[in-house]
Write the structure tokens for this entry.
Amino acid sequence: MNKLNFKHNQKNITDFYTAKDENSVVFKTHKTEYVSLLTDDEAIESEDDVVILKENVKLSVEDDENTQPSLKKHILKVKEDENVKIYDEALYEEKKALLLKDLQQKAASFKPSFEEEIEYKSNSKHVPEYRIHKFPDSEDKVTIDYFPKNSQTIYHFISHLHSDHHVGFSKKWLTENPHAVLVLGEENYLPFFYKFNISNFKSKVKALEEDYELMASRILVVRKNEPLKLYFNKSNSHIVITTLNANHCIGACLLLIKYYNEAGELKETILHTGDFRYNSKMMLPRLKDVYFDKIYLDTTYKSPVWNFTPKVELLNKVSLFLQQKLKPAIVENWFYKGNRIQRTLDTFVKNITFDKKSLKTLIILGSYTIGKEFLASGLSQKMNDCPIIVDKEGFRSVYNLPTNGNFVKSTDITKDLIDNFKNNDTVLYLGSIGNPKEIKQKLKLFNVEKIFGKMITICISLSGWNFYKWKNFFQDMEKVEELPVVNSSNCHRILEEFNDNSFIKRKYDLEEIFNSDLIFDDGFKLDMENLPKWIITQDKLNRIVYWKLSYSDHSSYKELSECCTELNYGKIIPTVNTHSMDLLEYHMRLWRLCKKSD
């Protein structure tokens, strides 16, 4: 069939084209090129942008004929020593109690007292300008989310604990920069110690180092709803910092910083978003009455192309799709439709049975070492409070995880899957899992099937970049010369057309923009034999479905627009995609014009 022929007003996302007239000749336009991209029936490719990373997973060795004998012997030997296991847990809890006591005693203000003036060494590597903020009419400055080899400031802020926001940090860095002081949101204090094994906190066999109190004194916290005052060396000039939930990953916070000179006069107020997903209802009440001289803005999704579904709305759609469409379609296709012979073989040869009433479903949410807790806890709540298994050895487990999610901190993933499936038909796993095609081997799911019979595994990749398969198709939207000229009289109309996609549809002569969220439409009929392979694929042999879900903890373009038209500010400083400053300046000017003309 000629891909250049297509059908208008498609109801099913997998039915993008039909031949209107096999003898007609259709010239290739933007529209036909776009449709051809949707209809490529290609094999699933390696997922370059999948946010699923490899980490150590503790697996059960029971009945695992594939485990190497030497490794199996070693693991069993460790398991036999129950005294060591008890001692390790007690030691960790003892160290945790000491650090929590130190946390409780931290003061609401801090003033360094260096006897000599600090001489800052230069760095051979360029430090991005947006990483260091210099306050007006002074030499006072702070560093945010960055650790150059040679520190240039006393205070170093960390907005959250994703690795790209503490680039350069290590325990060695603390030693080599003895004047430096770290400032974190209170929620990140213990996880920070654990992630970097500061003062041996993560170690299961070593006590805290004797100088842990000295180390802890260099790590300050901003408590929730309580400001922290920080003085600069030998000066009365100071900053006052408060935080606000950034709606990103667990522990992520917005930093609100007010700078006062030596006379106590307020000279500058800045907002640093770190990574955030703007939510007007959540954030605006705290921010609307503040004028920010500068906003350091997370501009990950800098183009109107990226207008994905809001988080709360997406949670509801994902829950309904899983329970009302995807799972029923899988059951019908895998276990009933023409599979009678296979079911008989599985039952009598492999001793794997199938019982629809007790069918077990494992939903795997791929994430970094932290992140996506909102989705996991929300799905748990909507699925009869089903358990969410997380790796206890990862530093996510050190956080106070959301109370609306039934989290299980596991040291043996396979064993805890079995234990939790005894009382639940659905279990969630949140964590990094390496190659999703190897998940059944990594989690030893065949051991689970031996006990419960056949099961369904749904492996979900979570990334905003999953929104499109054909990202480069809309590349003209990142060229300023391809965008409309804006002024005070047309700015509102242009912004509205960007936010509702009408400009993109008109520019590319499209009736609909097909993104991965369209599977949630009422008109979409899920057919397991005709899947949109750029969104969902299946491995029938291993009974696994792979789903590339567009879920992001960064602000969409529309949410950035809301942020920059609702807040009061003097200047925006982008912190992401700074190589595209002409495009960023175009949109920042558009937002400012819309705000001024309100």
Notes: Residues 311-467+515-549 form one domain. Confidence is low (pLDDT under 50) at residues 1-28, 33-87. The longest helix spans residues 311-336. The chain has 17 helices and 19 strands.
